[in-house]
Write a structure and sequence with these properties.
Layout lengths: L2 H14 L9 E5 L4 E3 L15 E3 L5 E3 L7 H10 L5 E5 L2 H7 L15 H6 L5 E2 L7 H11 L4 E4 L3 E6 L2 H21 L8
Parallel strand pairs: 6-7
Antiparallel strand pairs: 1-2, 1-5, 2-3, 3-4, 5-8, 7-8
């Protein structure tokens, strides 16, 4: 399976597992010339191999239509981190709910409730709300992802990075499961260290 096919498969899984809805979310993977990224305005549940856009790390379109408006933070992450080859930005309902809490802890957004969350995420910093597609959001996300594999964006969603799409997807699932458990428990929980 080539990179575009892997990207499309992950997009469809994100949609089927309700980790994105409508036209929300975007996914990218590093290429020799830059990155493949999902197009703007498309449902990830319906995106095809032909819809995928290839851009340089500076945003020049090499093939395809219009890239996701979040291309700036995808590109910035790949420029910064040689060890990262995949970026997933999603809007999973429970994770977004955590991002909207009045008591959101920006240093670490959620307690560690499962061993899988500890192993794959550990700490989930959050950044203040900034408009989607803005340079401010890209810079805020980039600053956190210098040292972490995931960042929660206030009232917006989550971005995860990894060596490949499979590992990024696994991290995202761990975050959503932990968020779901956290919200089910309210303030009555036993966190792991």
């Amino acid at each position: 399976m080539d990179l575009k096919e892997q990207l499309v498969e992950v997009c469809h899984q994100l949609y089927q597992r309700k980790l994105v809805s409508s036209t929300g979310g975007n996914v990218s993977v590093r290429t020799e010339r830059g990155l493949y990224i999902t197009p703007t305005g498309y449902s990830l549940g319906e995106v095809t191999k032909e819809d995928i856009v290839e851009i340089t790390l500076d945003g020049e379109i090499l093939n395809g239509g219009q890239p996701s408006k979040e291309w700036r933070f995808h590109s910035s992450i790949l420029k910064l981190r040689d060890d990262v080859h995949a970026v997933i930005h999603a809007h999973p309902a429970y994770t977004v709910a955590v991002s909207c809490r009045k008591d959101l802890n920006f240093a670490d957004a959620m307690p560690r409730l499962t061993p899988g969350y500890i192993a794959r995420v550990g700490k989930l910093p959050a950044v203040p709300y900034a408009p989607p597609g803005s340079e401010e959001l890209a810079q805020n996300v980039l600053e956190v992802l210098r040292h972490h594999h995931a960042v929660l964006m206030q009232n917006h969603g989550v971005t995860v990075i990894a060596k490949d799409l499979r590992h990024a997807f696994i991290i995202l699932e761990e975050i959503e499961e932990n968020a779901h458990i956290y919200l089910l428990l309210g303030q009555d929980y036993h966190a792991l260290s």
